[in-house]
Amino acid sequence: MGFLAAFTGWACLFAGWMPDAFAQDTKTQALIEKAFPHSNKCKRCHERVFEEWETSPLSKSIHSAAFRASLDAFLKSPGGKDQAVCFRCHAPQVREFPEHVQLFVEQARSGDPSLDGVACSQCHLIKQVDRAKHPPEPKYEIGTKILYGPYKDAVQNLAHQSMESDLFHKSDLCLNCHQSVPSAANLGKANDLLGNWDRSQAVKSGKECQQCHMPEQVGESANGEKKRKVANHTFPGRIGTLRQEAAKLDVQTKVEGDKTTVTVKVQSLVPHNLPATHPAWATVVLNLEVKGKNLKTVFADSRIYGRTYADAKGQKTVFDFEAVKVVDDTVLKPEETRVETFSFPTPKDTKTFDVEAVLNYGSITGPASFLERVEAESSKGSQDPAFQPIEIVRRTENVLVNK
Length: 403
Ligand code: HEC
Ligand code: HEC
Ligand code: HEC
Ligand code: HEC
Ligand code: HEC
What we know:
Elements: H1 2-35, H2 39-43, H3 47-55, H4 65-76, H5 87-90, H6 101-110, H7 120-124, E1 126-130, E2 137-140, E3 146-149, E4 161-164, H8 172-178, H9 201-204, H10 209-213, E5 216-219, E6 228-231, E7 247-256, E8 259-268, E9 284-291, E10 297-305, E11 307-311, E12 316-317, E13 323-329, E14 337-345, E15 352-361, H11 368-377, E16 390-400
Parallel strand pairs: 3-4
Antiparallel strand pairs: 1-2, 5-6, 7-8, 8-14, 9-10, 9-15, 11-12, 11-13, 15-16
Bound molecules: heme C (5 copies).
């Protein structure tokens, strides 16, 4: 009898325990999604916007192998005691639910999170952004049925109320996540991702982030509504056609007997730093290749635009949360033109040779152990997108060797 009671007791405990943890997580997620409705809820009526957003990097902000690997490195670091740091921008609903940060960590670690990252509610529930704070801080309005957006005259619907907010036409909305990274606060003033963007020609002429990164188009803002001006939600950046407007290359070659000099002018057309230096390994790379007889490469060199950071021990680090100092800064400043010269022996036994200049977003760098971790975390292994450079612009010139 006693045995049976003990046995059933255990059985109950067991049966109850496993699903309980699961049920608790489900409950927590439901609580979070009551305040920040899941993007699936918007898809029903805002299909075009949803489909555009789904292809954007924003919809994968807690999904990448690089994010998981660097999140883990961060959680093991001294600053990692505050587990919410990364999620304040990568899944900002955590700001309202700091006590449930464990769920965010677990889901990101799983590689297949069902929690949203930077999704619809994460932007459209922002009521204000406080520019006096560094980085600027968003104020979310939750618990009402109001969604903020660009329209004064939004058609009524049964799911939510609409409220016009000027913030949606302003860079401020974006700056709370894109201006600087609080986890790199040790860097002080050097913790600045965009540079003097507010003094650029583009900004002086009245452009906000949205004009370039959410270009205006005409379409339905909600299924079946009449067509009007809408904003593209694919957020073109490294991916998308905006890349063609990032930079120009001008290549001049001077052959002087045995010596040849190539001058490459790299003109950034971007009104902010290129690249933005979070994650800290982000680079833009200029590769120069000279192909002589039979198109064999006879010379190759490169220049790297990015930041090199050192940690408290003076060692180089690719993690901004470890960085205390910038040791080298070659980032292309807003609308800067950089001139690079390369000298090499004039290719032999050929009447002409090719000079090829290519500007790329560089692939991920860092200690071998970290790169192995990224590879192991990715379902694509060494084919993970983080390892692939992305071409921005290319120039090829055929040069005559005048005897
Ligand atoms: C809540 C934080 C947050 C806000 C607000 C935000 N972003 Fe982002 N944004 C991110 C994160 C995180 C990523 C990186 C996603 C990834 O690749 O994992 C990103 C990526 C991007 C990219 C792609 C960058 C690339 O390398 O290709 C663009 C473009 C972009 N955001 C533009 C904007 C614009 C424009 C706004 C304002 C309308 C904005 N963002 C507002 C967090 C935010
Ligand atoms: C202030 C907001 C902010 C914070 C805090 C932040 N990030 Fe980001 N993160 C961004 C933005 C914005 C981008 C997109 C940058 C771009 O493309 O220029 C990004 C991009 C990334 C990327 C590259 C895209 C990807 O998803 O693979 C990684 C990795 C990353 N962050 C990791 C982290 C980690 C780890 C932390 C915490 C230590 C963190 N971030 C904290 C805003 C932030
Ligand atoms: C990074 C912030 C951000 C995210 C994420 C985001 N939006 Fe927007 N959304 C904006 C901004 C900013 C505008 C106004 C742009 C403008 O008018 O220049 C806008 C405009 C809109 C509009 C007005 C009409 C239109 O189509 O442009 C709707 C509707 C909308 N968003 C719905 C959504 C939905 C649904 C999602 C998720 C699938 C989403 N948004 C994700 C920032 C965001
Ligand atoms: C039942 C359908 C329906 C659902 C569900 C729905 N919306 Fe809407 N939404 C609309 C309609 C209709 C409009 C008005 C469109 C217009 O005026 O062109 C609208 C307008 C908007 C606007 C513009 C508001 C303004 O004043 O600028 C935003 C932003 C928006 N919705 C975001 C969302 C988000 C985010 C979700 C998911 C949490 C969502 N909507 C879910 C139907 C819906
Ligand atoms: C005049 C147009 C223009 C404006 C305004 C603008 N950008 Fe960009 N941005 C670009 C171009 C061009 C690129 C480089 C090509 C690309 O990646 O699409 C770029 C690249 C980016 C990238 C990805 C590149 C990287 O190094 O990670 C992010 C993130 C970004 N911009 C954010 C912003 C934010 C935030 C604002 C507002 C403060 C802004 N941009 C304002 C044109 C603009």
